[in-house]
Amino acid sequence: MQGDAIVEAKDLKAYYITKAYGVERTVKAVDDISVSIKAGEVYGLAGESGCGKSTLLKVLLGDFQPPLTVVEGSVAYDFEGQTKDATKLSEQDKRDIRWNKVSYIPQGSMHVLNPVRRIQDTFHDFITTHKGTSKSQSYDMTRKYLRDLGLPEKVMRSYPHQLSGGMRQRVTIALATILWPKLIFADEPTTALDVVVQRGVIQLLKDIQQKEGSTVVLITHDLGVHANLADRIGVLYAGKLVEEAPTRTILKSPKHPYTQFLINSLPTFEERSAREGIPGRPPALDHPPSGCRFHPRCPMAIAKCSSIEPKMLELSPGHRAACHLLEEPNHAAA
Ligand SMILES: Nc1ncnc2c1ncn2[C@@H]1O[C@H](COP(=O)(O)OP(=O)(O)OP(=O)(O)O)[C@@H](O)[C@H]1O
Ligand SMILES: [Mg+2]
User: Fold this and answer.
1) Which residue ranges of the chain lie beneath pLDDT 70?
2) Is residue 269 one of the residues assigned to a domain?
3) Chain centre distance of CA 106
4) How far is 150 from 131, CA to CA, in rounded Å?
5) How high is the pLDDT of residue 142?
6) Under a CB-based contact definition with an 8 Å cutoff, are residues 33 and 217 in contact?
7) What are the strands, taking DSSP E only, across 191-312?
8) Looking at residue 50, what is its pLDDT?
9) 3-state helix, strand, coil in the chain (%, to 5)
10) Does residue 193 lie in a domain region?
11) How many CB atoms lie under 10 A from the CB of residue 271?
């Protein structure tokens, strides 16, 4: 593992392998991805729907079951010098690690709160499972944590349906982080919220991260959210990592044509409306295109893009991208 890494995936291949009526289907959702997340950073994963973001997160989290299968590669955790392979956790390891060390805010998590329990009792159920606390100890912990995060104490006695969508999401994030995990995985925590409410959720994640120096792996297809939160961004396309760089670098000088499209389709401050979208659609991952998976949609594709897979190139320290155009400086993309 790299010295400052807390979680590191190496040559990771994770496929959905299903069999129906004797026909085997393999969806190559994560296909040879290597990524190293540094302790204390916010690492953003970006990319269109279906490119493998949630799948990668599930494997990094060590929480996956068939049909999702790790076909190759490893995911190493480093907790205070102790190394573990997240793809091979025992049930005991999972119990030890989950929520205390690693927590997960799943996609669509606003709906995980039990509708017939008051928030304080949902917190108690959760805390006591891990810490064996009494009800009053759990309530005290919850009250203090909500106060630390600037959330109103009165939500404790509410039922989920009495809270707004944004407040429900903040409560869910508080629940997932109340045991101060070192590593937080958040899958689309702001999607489905309107922009104003999004800001509160982003601020909450920022606060938690800064208070504890936690590491956050954040998925959103919204680059605007990444710009606000992430230290570094990894861009996925069709199961591959195509570019990775510090946030400012990638927003200012994206090198992969796909990243350039993603950034160009962001609304600018003046326009406030979406600009040109990316033509075409991501491919189905049971039969991904040969060569560079982006070549059928890439306006800059050259002959070898359809047959040879581009290698990941280090363009400058910390800035990597996989595109044939970057191999020959004269043809460098933009
Ligand atoms: N249980 C499953 N069985 C088979 N294929 C699956 C399964 N779950 C996801 N996939 C496929 O794996 C690929 C990656 O899906 P994934 O959910 O990781 O994408 P994503 O980037 O998180 O998308 P979104 O932005 O829509 O959440 C997609 O092609 C999807 O159809
Ligand atoms: Mg997803």
Assistant:
1) 110, 267-276, 329-334
2) yes
3) 10
4) 24
5) 97
6) no
7) 215-219, 232-237, 240-246
8) 94
9) 35, 25, 35
10) yes
11) 9
Tokens of 176: 């997932």
Range of the domain at 266: 5-101+181-331
- At what angle are helices 135-148 and 119-131 packed, to 10 degrees? 110
The CA radius of gyration of the chain, in Å to the nearest whole number, is 21
Tell me if residue 79 falls in helix, strand or coil: strand
How many domains, the chain? 1
307 phi and psi angles, rounded to 5 deg: -120, -30
- Identify the residue whose C-alpha is closest to ligand 1 atom 31: 50
Ligand 1, atom 7: closest residue by C-alpha = 16
3-class DSSP assignment, residue 199: helix
Q: Tokens 């606060």 appear where?
A: 207
Q: Residue with the nearest Cα to atom 16 of ligand 1?
A: 52
Residues framing ligand 1 (Cβ under 6 A): 16, 27, 29, 47, 49-55, 67, 107, 221, 285
Q: 204: closest CA among 182, 235, 228?
A: 228
Pick the closest to residue 46 from 209, 274, 204, 250 (CA basis).
250
Helix intervals (H) in the chain = 53-61, 91-97, 119-131, 135-148, 165-177, 195-212, 223-229, 247-252, 257-264
Whether residue 35 lies inside any domain: the answer is: yes
Ligand 1 mean position, distance from CA 304 (Å): 28
**Distance from Cα 55 to the centre of ligand 2, integer Å:** 7
Tokens of residue 276, six digits = 């040109």
Whether the full predicted model's pTM is greater than 0.70, yes or no, is: yes
Backbone angles phi and psi of 24, in degrees to 5: -90, 140
Instruction: Quote the distance between the C-alpha of residue 131 and its chain's center.
Output: 27
